[in-house]
Amino acid sequence: MWGFVNYYVLKTKILNIELLSINHSGQLLSYYKSNKEHLEKWEPKRKSNYYTDLIFRNLIIKRLEEIENGQSIRFVIMPNDNSTIIGVCNYTKITNINCHLGYSISKEYEGQGLMYEALLRTNQYIFDKTNINIIQASIIINNQKSKNLLHKLLFKYQGKINNYLEINGKLEDHSIYYLNK
Q1: DSSP code, position 40
Q2: From 3.40.50.1240, 3.40.630.30, 3.40.50.300, 1.25.40.10, which CATH number describes the 9-180 domain?
Q3: d(CA 46, CA 130)
């Protein structure tokens, strides 16, 4: 649907950013297992069976169907010198002209500018290769690192929504940001 079937890898100086595929199942499970504690304060509460091969394989199949149906575009992020997944960035809730951005990076790689580099490349790809004109992101109020990242990427603050998303078992207030093409 998105016209990138033959273009699976986006490259930066130090990263390979690949469109999610079924081949990433094991690596993605490892990423989430090894970063469980790091990510749980920013993501929905996960059931104990979430971190299993079967669940992740089925999750990826569902996400690939979303990609095929034009509902999302999902990427995995790896250093260009190895194939270890160190982060993800997802463009979801796609409509004719806008989408919602979500992302995470391994605790080990946080604060090194890698997510900035990845999002700079993937945001440009989204604007160049799709009809999307607005990328929106919602950030939990106390996530200053993400707020700083979006500011550096030239996202604009739109407002605050109370009790917007469930994060680690609790409804949390979020700041809403957007980036225009």
Answers
A1: T
A2: 3.40.630.30
A3: 32
Per-residue pLDDT of the chain (181 residues; tens, 9 = 90+): 444 444 468 989 999 999 999 888 889 999 999 998 888 777 777 778 888 888 888 989 999 999 989 899 999 999 998 889 999 999 999 988 999 999 999 999 999 999 999 999 999 999 998 999 999 999 998 889 999 999 999 999 999 988 766 766 778 788 999 999 9
Domain locations in the chain as residue ranges: 9-180
Q: Where are the alpha helices (DSSP H) in 8-143?
A: 25-34, 36-39, 53-68, 114-129
Residue 69 and residue 1 in contact, taking contact as beta carbons nearer than 8 Å: yes
